[in-house]
Amino acid sequence: MEQPRSDEDKQLVSRTQAGDASAFDELVVKYTPRLYGLVYNMTSNHEDTNDLLQDVFSKAYKSIGGFRGKSSFYTWIHSIAVNMTLNFLKKRGRRFHLSLDDMDASVQNDKEFLELTATSSPVREADLSELQRRLNEAMMKLSDEHRAVVTMFHIQGMPHAEISKILRVSEGTVRSRLFYANRQLQNYLDEFRKNPVS
Amino acid sequence: MNEFNENDIGKLLRLKRHEQPPPGYFDNFLHEFHRRQRDELLREPVWRICLQRAQDFMFRLNVPVLTSYPAAITAVLICAAVISLKVYQGPGGMNVAVQSQTPVVATAAQDAAWSLSAPVATSDLSPKLLRNVNYSSHTHRAATPPRYVLDSTPVSYEAAFRF
C-alpha cells in the first residue's frame, strides 16, 4: 500500500489551518479507507471501528492547529489512530466479539490468493474461509501492541521505519515484535491444522 | 504435512485487505462526521467553545512564541518590585519614614518664627531642631495620661444584698 503524496497533504493541512474546513474533508475522504483497515484489524469489530474513526478525525481536526509538520500528516494521523485504538482496547479489555465480515468477492482475483491456494499445501488442505476465521481468532490472541505491528506490516504494508515512527519505538523493537507475533500466529494455525475440529 | 511458514502467514494476512465495511460506508462516513461535529458543538457549553476558539487562534498566530519575551520582562519587573517592597519594609524602614516626616513637623513647630521676610525657613532643618522635635514628641507621649484606666475593684450598679 503506497503512501500518499506528502506535498499534497501539506497543502490540505495549510488550508485547514487557515480555516478551510473543506480541505479537512478532503483529508478525511482520502484517509478513511486506509485508517479503517488499520483500526478494523486491531479491533475486529465494525461498530467499534466506526466510532473510533470518527473520534480520530474529530481529534485530528481539533488539534490540527498545533500540527507543525515535523512529521508527515500520514504519520501524524496514523499515530493518533493507533494510540486511540490502543487506549480503547485497554479499556475494553479482553471482552470482544468478532464481527469480521467475509472477504470481499474480489479476493478470488487476488494474485496472492491464487498463489496460496495453488502452491501452499497447508492452505490448500484447509478450508480457506475457516482458515481466515482461525487467523482472526489468532490475531485477537496477540497482545494489542503485537497486533498493531502485524496489522501495519502485513496488512497495511508499511515499512519498519514508518511503523517505528508511528509507534515511537525503535526499528529493532518493531522487528522483534513482528518476529514474536509471526511465531505466535504460526503456532496457532499449526495447532488448528493438526486439530481442525477444536 | 507441511507447517505454515512465515511467508504463508504474511500472504494470509494480506488477504485481510479484502475484508471491507458494508457497501456505501465510505460514502456516508463524511456526512456522519459532519453530523457528529454539529452534535458535539450543540452539546458543548459556550465557554468551552470560546476557549477552544481562543486556543486555535493562539496556535495559528503562534502567540506563545511572540509573548515569551514580554512575559519574561514582566515577570522580572514584578519580581524586582516585590523584592524592593520587602527591602523598603525592612527594619530600617521606620527610620526613613520618621526622617521624611520631620521637616513637616519642624516647620509646624516653627510657625511662630515664620515671617514674610524669610518665607522658606531653610535654616530650621538643622539636626539640632530635629532632635528637639523628636524629644518633644517622646516627652509629650510620656506626659499625657492614659485614656482608660481599669479600676482595681469591679463596679456594680446592683443594689447590695441585705439580710
Written overview of the protein:
The complex is a heterodimer of chains A (198) and B (163). Chain A is mainly α and 198 residues long. In chain A, 73% of the residues lie in helices and 0% in strands. Chain A is built from 10 helices and no strands. Chain A has helices at residues 6-17, 21-43, 46-63, 73-92, 111-119, 121-125, 128-141, 144-155, 160-167, 171-194. In chain A, α2 (21-43) crosses α4, α4 crosses α9 (160-167) and α9 (160-167) crosses α10. The radius of gyration of chain A is 18 Å and the shape is elongated. The mean pLDDT of chain A is 84. Chain B is mainly α. In chain B, α6 crosses α7 (127-143). The model of chain B is unreliable at 105-109 (pLDDT under 50). The N and C termini of chain B lie far apart (127 Å). Chain B is built from 7 helices and no strands. Classes of the chains: A mainly alpha (198), B mainly alpha (163). Chain A binds chain B through residues 1, 17, 25, 28-29, 32-33, 36-37, 40-41, 46, 49-50, 53-54, 57-58, 61-62, 65-66, 100-104, 106-107, 110, 112-113, 115-116, 120-123, 125, 131-132, 135-136, 150, 154-155, 157, 182, 185-186, 189-190, 193-194, and chain B through 1-6, 8-22, 25-26, 29-30, 32-33, 36-37, 40, 52, 55-56, 59-60.
Properties at a glance:
heterodimer, A: 0% strand, B: 163 residues, mainly alpha, elongated
Give a short summary of the structure.
The complex is a heterodimer of chains A (198) and B (163). With 198 residues, chain A is an all-alpha fold. Helix content of chain A is 73%, strand content 0%.
Strand content of chain B: under 5%
End-to-end distance of chain A? 35 Å
Q: How much helix is in the residues of chain A?
A: over 70%
Shape of chain B: elongated
Q: What's the helix count of chain B?
A: 7
What structural class do helix, strand and pairing data of chain A support?
A: mainly alpha
Choose one word for the global shape of chain A. Answer: elongated
Please describe the biggest sheet of chain B, giving its number of strands, its sense, and whether it closes into a barrel: none
**Number of continuous helical runs of chain A:** 10
Spans where pLDDT lies below 50 across 5 or more residues of chain B: 105-109
Biggest β-sheet of chain A, characterized?
none
Task: Give the total of beta strands of chain B.
Answer: 0
